[in-house]
Amino acid sequence: MIVAAGSSCKKVDNYAAPNVTLKGVVKDASTGENIQTEQGSGTRIKLLEISWSSNPTPYYVSSYQDGTYSNTKLFAGKDVISAEGPFVPLVQVDNTGKTIVDKSQTVDLKEVTTVNFSVEPFLRIAWIGEPVINGDGTITAKFKFTRGTTDPNFQQNITDVSLFVNSNKYVGNNNYDNRYTPKVTYDGTAGNDLVGQTITLTTAGGPLPGKREYFLRVGARISYGLNYYNYTDVKTVAVP
Amino acid sequence: MKKYTYMILAVLLCWTTACKKLDTLPPSIVTDNDIFTNSAGIQAYMARMYSTLPIEDFRYSPQRGLNFFWIISPFSAVSGEALSRDQNGAMQESLTFDDRPTTWSLCYQLIRDANYFAENLPKYASNFTPAQVNAWLGEARFIRGATYFALVKRYGGVPIVDKVLQYPQQSIDELKIPRTSEEKVYDFIAADLDYAYTNLPESNQVGRANKYVAAGFKSRAMLYAGSIAKYNQISLVDGSGNRLCGIPAAKAVTYFKAAYDAAVLLESKYSLYKKSWAAGDKTAQYQNYVNLFFDATSSENVLVRQYHYPESVHGYDAYNVPRQLMGANGYSSEVNPTLNFVEMFDGIPKNADGTIKTTTGGKYDLYTNTVDLFANAEPRLRATVILPGDVFKGISVEIRRGIYTGSSAGGISPLLPAGSTAHYPADHIVQSANASQTPYKLPNGTTMNPAGLSGYFTGDGTCSVSGFSIRKNLVPDKPTSEVLENRSDQTWVEMRYAEVLLNRAEAAYELNSLGQNDKNYIQDAFTDINLIRERAGATLLTGAADLNNINVIRTERKKELGFENKTWWDLRRWRVIDKEQNSTIYRTLMPFYSANDGKYFFDARLDERNSRYTFDVRWYYEQIPQGEIQKSQNLIQNPGF
């Protein structure tokens, strides 16, 4: 009995642990800058492993908020890789199910593999100058947003803009201090009229408590699909 | 030796003969033959199907799913109708709670039950009249259609299973049925409900479908389909061109027309409940509206789900009574209507922007009693919401935020700037942290508790956190000794004629706005809305021209069907909830007693607890449980999950 039980152990599943690293960055095709996003609910990398099946279940890797991504525990294999996020979709399917755009990449994953993507963001948002601390203890920031694509299919109305404030560097629509963060919503085409203009937003809720740092980021979004936000990079403001 | 031989023979003889009687089914197993040969068996089968019909009733909450007793995270505190201490934000339905089956799997179990019934009943048809068989087949199709509606409104297009799946006779690959398009699922529902309408009788047992119930459900489902076609922006198309999420805009007219036509079928078969209604008598209209949810003979009830203590129960009263009427389990006041909800109604003083008016010239208006502010309130509002100071179970429900002790010379200025989420300044205000209060001595020498008996308490949330408490569906004469969990058994009204009228009005308005003029749709919508408003005791529309905005109809729907677990789905199918809940804080109304005036004033403010609501756009198509995709890899997940 014991011999039988022991010998059956020889058939243990000894497939090697996953050790392949996949990393890269999602960049703006025109400016070369990283596409800023939010972690968890923003950009994600979609992996379809076609080594075994022609109809695989997708596996997703969330990107960091600065647009880079990395996963160090993947299995080696052949994958079709694309990205989803606040930019013109890399894979587009028409109403008949025909793939009309396919910028996904077929990659042999092994050791350390780097896969980058060049995309057209829905919106580009740029700081104008540095955020300033006002006399009343609030912070004011200036910025502008412009369209990141000339394709009219992805130029829906601009619906929201917000100056996200948080007490740590992870800041965005998924993670912000709602006491101080001003949010502006636009009806109809009102937001579109502000494209290219300087917009000024001041933190809400009175003076920010002092002797600490705040992390600020501007986000704006259009009414397309899952309404992803585009962002600026994060600015740090030390309130004395 | 011979003796032994006989003994062995005798044993063998007994043994083998006994074996003949072993080949019988255990009596504890119910077979098809027990069920399908007599009407009592059919009724038992039906009872099981109806008891698992996926409707959001007294036993539903998004946190814990269908048919579960513990409802402390009420659905109405997800939709913005109410605030609750245990539900402080937006959410989609939880995929799993503990080890409970998902809504997805519950629905497919019921679909299998309905398919099994429809396939097997005809084999036993000789036991019944053809009319009976047809009616029951219609009923099974009604249940299947209603169940598919529960699926499609959550997930979009889902796999269509229209027969009993057999394993292992069918291969695993054959059983991995892919999702079909959202449009085809709605068409499938329409076909099932049409079949049910044709085959069901005019009337049926209470709690079961008749042909008009099928028509009513069709009007509901088709209205959803039309709304998706018109307002949805999300698309997911599979490799074969099936649009799993979204319906082509061109189909909007077809679906709204189907909704309208189905709603018309109920005309003169049901009517708005007006048994104790009297024109011009607000008290009678109020009482009539309260009674409508408790009168078993109501002409308005289209489909109900009955409960009966002790074998089939819920806890709606225990969880939701005002704090001062709390039962022995220690639950109370989970549903506290928001000021946003209350402000939709007529008969309260309002500012130009439609918000409640509590100040004049920058100073608070003063009232002798809290309920005076609502002296002329629409009867439907009083019957839906317990207003501060109004009477419930013979007791005045006392809701008071605190006592203002500051000077009242020249009037009292607002305690906080507009739009503030801050706590009230501690100076000049006496308040209570919980229900054990220290009475405050008023200038006239009498004493008063800082907070009302039903709140507001600053420390624990076991009170009215919005300044209001729910009245709709609470039993008006239930003794406090019976206000316990699993002790309530009032009937859930899943569909009433008021909803059918509102379906009809909305479909008619949408048809008119889409350029359809084969009927005078706008006049029809006007008539429907005024029927609702008249019974409610609300201000009537003066003419069809008043219907100049879809929001007139939508607001009427929100008012009439408030706290009936319908509003969240409506906001969702109109695709407006992501704008309505975008870091949103709902409004509350806080009554204060001014010690120096001896009178009350009201502060309308944003929820002091700073509960923010943000609807994630992904929730327009909910996540398909990952376990289902692992079982059936042809299922494509909804966008973003």
What does this structure look like?
The complex is a heterodimer of chains A (240) and B (641). Chain A is an all-beta fold. In chain A, 3% of the residues lie in helices and 43% in strands. Chain A is built from one helix and 19 strands. In chain A, a hairpin with a 6-residue loop joins strand 17 and strand 18 (229-231). Chain A is globular. By secondary structure, chain B is α+β, with helices and mostly antiparallel strands. Chain B has three domains: 32-268, Serine Threonine Protein Phosphatase 5, Tetratricopeptide repeat (Alpha Horseshoe), CATH 1.25.40; 310-408 and 420-490 and 585-610, no CATH class; 504-584, no CATH class. Helices cover 35% and strands 10% of the residues of chain B. Chain B has helices at 2-19, 32-35, 39-51, 76-79, 103-120, 130-155, 172-175, 182-199, 211-231, 252-264, 282-291, 316-320, 339-342, 379-384, 497-513, 521-536, 550-560, 567-573, 577-580, 626-631, and strands at 82-83, 236-237, 243-245, 301-305, 336-337, 359-360, 363-364, 385-386, 391-392, 395-396, 402-404, 429-430, 440-441, 447-448, 469-470, 492-496, 582-584, 587-594, 599-606, 613-614. A four-stranded mixed sheet of chain B has the order 12-11-18-19, with no helix packed on it. In chain B, helix 5 (103-120) packs antiparallel against helix 6, helix 6 packs antiparallel against helix 8 and helix 8 (182-199) packs antiparallel against helix 9 (211-231). The longest helix of chain B is centred in the N-terminal third of the chain and has 26 residues, at 130-155. The mean pLDDT of chain B is 95.
